[in-house]
Write a structure and sequence with these properties.
There is one protein chain. By secondary structure, the chain is α+β, with helices and mostly antiparallel strands. It has helices at residues 17-26, 41-55, 59-71, 92-95, 114-125, 132-138, 211-238, 277-286, 324-327; strands at 143-144, 150-152, 157-164, 168-182, 185-192, 200-204, 240-244, 252-257, 265-272, 275-276, 295-307, 332-342, 367-368, 371-372, 375-380, 386-391, 396-402, 406-407. It folds into two domains: 11-17 and 36-232, DD-peptidase/beta-lactamase superfamily (Beta-lactamase, 3-Layer(aba) Sandwich); 239-347 and 359-407, no CATH class. An eight-stranded antiparallel β-barrel has the order 7-8-9-11-12-15-16-17. A six-stranded antiparallel beta sheet has the order 1-2-3-4-5-6, with helices on both faces. A hairpin with a 7-residue loop joins strand 5 (185-192) and strand 6.
Length: 409
Amino acid sequence: MKPEQKPPCGAFPVCTREQFFQGLQVMVPSYPPWQTAAYSNIGFQLFTYALENITGKAFEDILQDRIIKPLGLTNTYYNIAPASIGIVPTDVQDSYWYVNLGDADPGGNMYSSPTDLSLFSRAILLSSLLPPALTRRWLQPSTFASDPAASIGAPWGIRRIQLDAKASPFRTVSVFTKAGTFRRYSAFTTLIKEFGIGFTIMLAGRGKLSNFAIADILGSELLPAFDAASRNEADLLFAGTYVADPMSGLNSTLAIATDPKKPGLGITSWFHNNTDMVSFSIALQSGSPAPPLHPEIRLYYTQLEDVFEPGQPEGEVAGNPAGLAGLFAGGKRQSWKAVFEDTGLPNLGLGLFSTECGAWVGLTGVTYASMPLDEFVFEFNAAGQVVSIVNAAMRVRLWKVYPGFGIRP
């Protein structure tokens, strides 16, 4: 090696910004742009430099102003934190407690606590600092990995995990993870957007189990529990019978239930003026004159909801008693999409290009007077109780029946 080929900096001493860019010009690329996924600490360093150029502020100040202070992260530090407030498993030298990576710190050399990481994760899921649309765009894959259950986001490692591989192989949750290890420390944080929750792992010492191994153990126990808890909550909130107002003269009913082997909410029966809408909807969706063998409708939350403004609800909806707007004051409405299926047809399995899991192409496939048949809207009162449901195409409000109380409110 020639003397001029020896790098003047690196782990120690750390590189200045000028030295970093000089060294970057010497390095050869691993792949052309957008060819494949490749992790890079340098990417975070370049991103930090870009932020500083855009804002005119140091990265540490950006972090304090945009993240740490707004979220009240009292145990998160960009620079070195006092060893007295941390866990030092061996000694400060062996554990690298005081090691500083200079401008490379944003790639994974900060100090935090499980509580602060949990607060930060909740802020992402609740869109506390970002608009919800931007959060949804952020929590998406950017490319794929060789593992068909894995993909890569920015900066996420993403796993598609089957909740019940035998009963429902297409029923998965997307788990967004960020993990890292630095000498005697490692961390692992997850966001499970379908459930709106996650968990954080932080380790210190020479443990035999890695952060990923502990995540495997926790996930195998927590994911079924999360699934069961969300189903029980949905059952309490939505399940039951919905009927037209007795004074409307309409003979319309709908029943909803949950199923531990199936996703979303199930419409177990739906009649509109004595017409069996379950079978009828599937016939309309499929375009087949043959009656379905096992008609089934399942509802999925779209994440679309809004609060009732004064004077709402209004419009062309039948079955409305007098003083309707007052019944919903302070409440909200929530949109759900229906998937119409004949689950009695033979399972053809997966072909090279064909699939039986293509409901996304049939969205709003049937409309009546410009309104979608697959659009259902739950309406809540100010106490958070489901009061009614409206199918957009049928334009009929059906009221939830509470045993012992009748129609609410």
